Amino acid sequence: xxxxxxxxxxxxxxxxxxxxxxxxxxxxxxxxxxxxxxxxxxxxxxxxxxxxxxxxxxxxxxxxxxxxxxxxxxxxxxxxxxxxxxxxxxxxxxxxxxxxxxxxxxxxxxxxxxxxxxxxxxxxxxxxxxxxxxxxxxxxxxxxxxxxxxxxxxxxxxxxxxxxxxxxxxxxxxxxxxxxxxxxxxxxxxxxxxxxxxxxxxxxxxxxxxxxxxxxxxxxxxxxxxxxxxxxxxxxxxxxxxxxxxxxxxxxxxxxxxxxxxxxxxxxxxxxxxxxxxxxxxxxxxxxx
Length: 289
Ligand code: MF3
Ligand code: CO
Ligand code: CO
Known about the structure:
The chain is built from 5 helices and 15 strands. By secondary structure, the protein is of the alpha+beta class. The strands form 5 sheets. Strands 1, 2, 4 and 5 form a 4-stranded antiparallel β-sheet that branches. The protein is globular. One cobalt (II) ion binds next to strand 4 and strand 5.
């Protein structure tokens, strides 16, 4: 049924359509005729939702700061989980990871050749030279934010440091590729892939970024490579993660015995950085700074 100007907007703002997303929809219809894959309405957040996601992101970043200031050699990954539970409780928030599809802990801790979804464990002790990704997804008042960082434990090898740095650059190349109403998910992927390949690294394909905000994982998928088929156009109001997993060796991975943790097949180091990003009228806002 056609929406009329005086009807309520579909975005949940309680504003009149003509004062809210009518022009936006017209612009998307035009772009669709030009051949773009345009996002579905459910991928577009309203002001109130964006405000909620921002608050969740502040807590999530505070958690990663807290972990960053305590992490070091001799600590177990279970202690990182303990810090997570404590911090989120103190901030009236909860972990979106805990019990997600049966996931047993509140955060992911992925060391060296673990690509992602490393499970905190009281038997796993961080040692000098390790590189670790800590990936947190927090829920606050029903809104979600998702981010991860790499930490280098003590002195790490030059190869490890390079991988960590270049992977961070890959994330930022992906973010910087975004042009509202102009660029697509493929452009993010191509920017990441190009930079990784320039350094002789490979990009993991089995896991990708995603829409986020009203739940942990929403449409669209955000690929970290160019699939060479048409992908969704990026427009204001979308909130997505970009979270490239970059391997020092080949891109191939397998899931380990716990059914969750992914490892590089060749045993090479893997790194990952993740941000939650809002697409605005003029560019992007990194919510998980
Ligand atoms: N934080 C992850 C992501 O970036 C998802 C966590 S998986 C879970 O999408 F099993 F730990 F919940
Ligand atoms: Co994450
Ligand atoms: Co994510």
